[in-house]
Write a structure and sequence with these properties.
- There is one protein chain.
- It is built from 8 helices and 7 strands.
- It is of the alpha+beta class and 260 residues long.
- It folds into 2 domains: 2-50, no CATH class; 68-258, Histidine kinase-like ATPase, C-terminal domain (Heat Shock Protein 90, 2-Layer Sandwich).
- It has a 5-stranded mixed β-sheet, with helices on one face. A two-stranded antiparallel ribbon has the order 1-3.
- It is rod-shaped.
Amino acid sequence: MYYFDIQYFDFYNDTQKQYAQDSLWTRTTRFSVFLSKCILYLTPTALLLMFQFYKNQQNFLKLNEQKKVAELTALKNQLNPHFLFNTLNNLYALALDKSDKTPEVIERLSDILDYMLYRCDDTYVPIHKEIQLIENYLSLEKVRYGKRAFITFDHHIDQEVTIAPLILLTFVENAFKHGVSQELKQCTIIISMTLKDSYIVFSIFNSKPKNGVGNQQKKDASLGIKNVKQQLELLYSNAYDLQVLENEDSFEVMLKLRYA
């Protein structure tokens, strides 16, 4: 106040000159004058601080989005090699047996890889693409296990909605890996998908092997579920509900995802 009053005294109006002629102590202790001077000189500072805050917030949101994309990419990369390894093992076994079903398996695998590599890069994809992916996967596993596995997949989707890619496939993989591959006799896998009250409702039931599941298998299943939960937190936050139930002779997963 002392500095600027001296510099610009000649440009003040009569009222301002009257205040400027008072001593610094008088002006400082006079609340109305002090407040008016603060508003005059601090307003540009406040505007600059607000602009800087907004700019920092934008940078934070941008970095947060980049982090989110990076985490999702890492989680998908954990899933894809595991799925490819299992499917190639199936194809290898069929080729050794010179099965007539080998061309069908190759075609199904080609469709799956085309989707996973080139058509599911978006954060959300049409739900019918995920349904087709699951159907292709089930076709491959039916060829592999034959009559050992009783498999049903009911989907009642009467409108086009979107869903995060590859999330549901993890549950299907787990059902086969820990419900079928360990079973010496017949096992059961029942999958359903429908729309209800703005939610995609997905459920999968699989019987447990009579000989039990080892600790390593349980650990692998837990890792798969953990990865899915991380994706759900990143993509759906509070817009989902996941329930995993383990009974004496079965596993059951119920997932509800809110769609836009």
